[in-house]
Amino acid sequence: MTSSVLFDISAGAYIAAMITYVIYLVVRNRTTGIVATSITIFGFVCQTAALAMRWVHSYYFWMASNPTSGFVEATLRGAPLRNLYESLIFFVWSLMLIHLIFEFKYKNRSLGAFVTPLAALALLFIDISGATKEIQPLIPALQSNWLLFHVFLSFIGYAAFGVSFGAATAYIVMVTESKTEKTYIFWSIITGIFILVLVGMGIDFLSLSSAERAELFQNHFLKSTIRSSSGGVVAVSSIVSVAFIFLLWHLGIRLKKVLEGLNLTPAMLDEIAYKSIAVGFPLFTIGGLLMGAIWANSAWGKYWTWDPKETWSLITWFVYALYLHARFVAGWRGKRVAILSVVGFIAVIFTYLGVNLVLSGLHAYGSG
Amino acid sequence: MEDKEKKDIFESIWKFFASVRLAIVVLIVLAGSSIIGTIVEQKAEPAKNITLLAKFFGDSAAPTVYNIFAKLGFMDMYGSWWFTTFLAVFSVNLIVCSIDRFPKTWRVIKKPQKPLSDSAIKSMPIRKDLTFRTGLDTAKEQFLKSLKASRYRVNESSEENTVRLYTQKGRYARLAVYVVHLSILLIFAGAIIGVRYGFKGYLNLPEGRSSSVAYISPTEPIELGFVVKCNWYDTQYYVDSDTPREFQSELSIFENGKEVLKKTIEVNDPLKYKGITFFQSSYGMMPDTVGYFVLDIAPAGGPEKRVWLRLGDSFEIPGTGITGMINDFSTALTRDRDTGKLNTYSKNMVNPAVAIEFAEPGRDTYTGWILKRYPDTGFLPGGHSVKFADYWGVEYTGLQVTKDPGVWLIYLASTLMGVGLYICFFISHKKIWINITGNKKSVRVAIGGSTNRNRINFEKEIDKIISRASESIEGGQPSKK
Ligand code: HEM
User: Which range, of B125-134, B143-152, B467-476, averages the lowest pLDDT?
Assistant: First the structure.
């Protein structure tokens, strides 16, 4: 079995797990929950094996062109963290790892319904973005150990922030009393957009030809729905989107009841949201910001250039520093800090994808 | 009267800068304004940003908006007076706030731990109540042992019928926050030193040439204090592909005409000399320059000899009577798949090749292309070889030249911040109190614990201490109350 087959199996398992977790939320049946967890674990094992295989593979790939390398060097250069595809796969892996740890630690499965969609989104994104799955040679700037640790730690950090995001959105739903609360409206719009993008990417995946998908991501993203060349399709998708967000806003409050029935408490969600940030923040600071700066300094002699990617990771850092101070020092509690966790994760997504897709960056890394 | 007023003003300024609210506002402003700087291209030509702004504001309004933005410093935002001011406020806030809080934290750290009454233990965030059928001394002994196994240094006090054990761990972890804050200030300090006393320049140095200056801008040379020479530049490629594997240059440093240092630099592996660092950053071809063809020639089984030749020059393979003449060159040779014709697919030296016309007494002359990337192309019939080592003197190496006397401070601060954050989030200040009351036959044990973070983990640790002690206490399992 090749690593890509295993990756596909794990991707399928995560998407199946997402569906099962959602069903579990609705039917609240113990067996369903166990099935959801088992599928997740199965996917995780497959993905771990696939990552290991890919690592071995790229070890030999590196050795083939650099026969004089030692074992350690080839192992480091072969680490599967070298392009958009590999980093997204690793993101999903870390996300599921952290999720499973929390699930066992808090003996609660419901969080899965909020975290697995992130994994699904990332996996769909891989296929839709047409990111190359080939093992590619490393361009010279990327041949650095700092870079490797930088990417590795940042992604574990991102995944922890992702879990916090899932817990914070669940928290917001749980503490909402009325549909007109600002936080709730914010929640329904953000979650609505999230789901719509997920669905839109799914539709892209099904309807666009592989040639179209191989093009630059910016050119085909949501091309079969909201960015279609046909005015009618755009109009229908816009109406459906607005209607969907409205419906989510209207019915989302029922989720509250569902969550209450699942022995989830706001206090527990709040704690998970905070704990994940407490884990993610040091990792992201050390790995994301500091090691990134050290790498830049060793490659170009400038540790900080205010290029958009760097600046966005700084913005992300500010948001999470804000979260910690607001919660830990200024004593903010509840919805206000939950919103900060959501905003922080939006900044994470923008740092990772938005900068490459929307803004022009200097970083060759992550451009596909 | 006046003194008091002055004191009041000072006090309110101090309060203003000591507030965490200010920190929250400043963080929001810094994060928010940084976004602008990532949308508007920084230090770019006006035309670029006007085009960008036209997308948001329309063609007619764009130049006006541009002028307003430029006045506000958005085009070079991170260097603008107001962004710098916010950074300064941020620093002052951080300093004042930390000074303001430090004495309190220090007192918490230094405050001696006291034994507590049973009722005080009952109000602890973590509390356990157990009874054992054993003597007071045994119970005390086992709990002491168990606490020591978890590496607590235990204090004790005893009255009749009651022993109080109390202990704490990790109190200095409370200082980690200050280390983190200090490291942020050190990063600022390092950055300021770098800007004041360092420079960031560049130098495009052709093969074989030297320079005693680098350039901050095309019109702004800066003296290096020594001479740097580029001996050669080379791009290496992955096998059978045009993906670069490494960009390399060999540089030499000369002082008073004498070579003092020589190094081959690569991306991620620069040359450092006297505080100035030379990074490999780009390369290119010089227009209208002719160079030397560097060939390594060897007769079958014989030693290799290096020759430097111009286009049209001839050479002989020693002892064989075979001569070669260089008659053509391509920077990037390829064979067209359909027509089979040779052509050049890039002006850069991606796949350099040299055409050599060989003549041997008693044979027809023939011409062969020898490719630098494929040494096999240089094997001749009869086992002789002519390898194409380089076309030298036509490329330049693009060097990033920087001097940053503040960078060590950045590294130091990064280390401090890493260590500080680790301690801050993963090491907590834990306190345990254990009161054991009873006689020779049975005891009651009241356990209380408090921590400043990671309560769940601490609770597990206490459970472990209890189970370890109760296992070794005679009479076995504790009966929970
Ligand atoms: C982005 C910059 C900053 C970072 C990375 C940072 C980092 C931290 C961290 C990691 C903590 C510990 C939080 C926790 O225990 O959960 C903390 C606490 C704190 N920070 Fe900051 N900080 C920053 C800026 C500031 C500023 C500008 C102020 C100024 C008011 C400030 C004031 C405080 C205070 C008062 C505490 C609580 C200290 C205590 O426990 O006694 N921080 N900071």
Answer: B467-476
Average pLDDT over every residue of B279-287: 88
Compute, in angstroms, the gap from residue A277 CA to the centroid of ligand 1: 14
Mutual orientation of helices A253-260 and A3-27 as an angle, nearest 10°? 90
Flag residues of chain A having pLDDT under 50.
360-368
Report pLDDT for B243.
80
User: What are A170-198's pLDDT values in tens digits?
Assistant: 899 888 888 888 888 888 888 888 888 87
Calculate how far, in angstroms, residue B181's C-alpha sits from the geometric centre of ligand 1. 7
**DSSP H or E run through B427:** none
Q: Considering the entire predicted model, what is its pTM? A: 0.82
Q: Is the CB of A328 under 6 A from ligand 1?
A: yes
The Cα of A253 is separated from the nearest Cα of chain B by a number of Å equal to 30
**Assembly ipTM:** 0.81
What's the rounded Cα separation, in Å, for the pair A96 and A101?
A: 8
Burial class (CB in 10 A: 0-12, 13-18, 19+), A280: buried
What distance in angstroms lies between residue A334's CA and the mean position of ligand 1's atoms?
Answer: 20
- Whether B268 and A330 lie within 8 Å, measured CB to CB: no
Residue of minimum CA distance from atom 8 in ligand 1? B177
Q: Using an 8 Å CB-CB cutoff, list chain A residues near B424.
A: 282
Determine whether the shortest distance from the Cβ of B429 to ligand 1 is under 6 A: no
Q: d(Cα B445, Cα B457) in Å, to the nearest integer?
A: 21
User: Domain locations in chain A?
Assistant: 3-176+253-367, 179-252
CB contact under 8 A, A144 and B30: no
Within 8 A of B417 by CB-CB distance, chain A residues are 285-286, 290
Q: Average pLDDT over chain B, rounded to whole?
A: 88
pLDDT at position B394 over 70 = yes
Residue B72 CA to residue B145 CA, distance in Å, equals 67
In terms of Cα–Cα distance, which of B278, B193, B274 is closest to B229? B278
- Give CA–CA dist B101/B451, Å, rounded: 19
pLDDT, residue A362, reads 32
Supply angle C-alpha B405, B408, B409, rounded to 5: 95
Q: What is the pLDDT of residue B480?
A: 47
Q: What CATH number labels B114-170+429-480? A: 3.30.160.110
pLDDT value of residue B90? 94
Q: What is the pLDDT of residue B474?
A: 57
DSSP string, B78-106: GGSHHHHHHHHHHHHHHHHHHHHHHHHHH
Asked whether the beta carbons of residue A311 and residue B34 sit closer than 8 angstroms, the reply is: yes
The rounded Å distance from CA A278 to ligand 1 centre is: 13
Q: Which residue of B has its CA nearest to A355?
A: B38
Return the HEC string of A327-365: HHHCCCCCHHHHHHHHHHHHHHHHHHHHHHHCCCCCCCC
What would the pLDDT profile of B355-373 be if each residue is shown by its tens digit? 999 998 888 888 889 998 8
Nearest CA in chain A to B266: A140
Q: What are the phi and psi torsion angles at A226 (to 5°)?
A: -70, -20
Sheet of strand B305-309, all strands in order from the earlier edge strand to the far edge: B305-309, B292-298, B385-392
Most A CBs within 10 A among B21, B29, B38, hence the mutation to make, goes to B38
Q: Assess B408–A contact: CB distance below 8 Å, yes or no.
A: no
Check residue B481 and give its pLDDT.
42
pLDDT of residue A360: 46
Quick: pLDDT tens for B374-383: 888 888 888 8
Q: Does B239 touch chain A (CB under 8 A)?
A: yes
Domain boundaries, chain B: 2-107, 114-170+429-480, 194-285+396-416, 292-392
Q: Identify which of B191, B245, B456 has the shortest CB distance to residue A137.
A: B245
Q: Mean pLDDT over residues B78-93, rounded?
A: 90
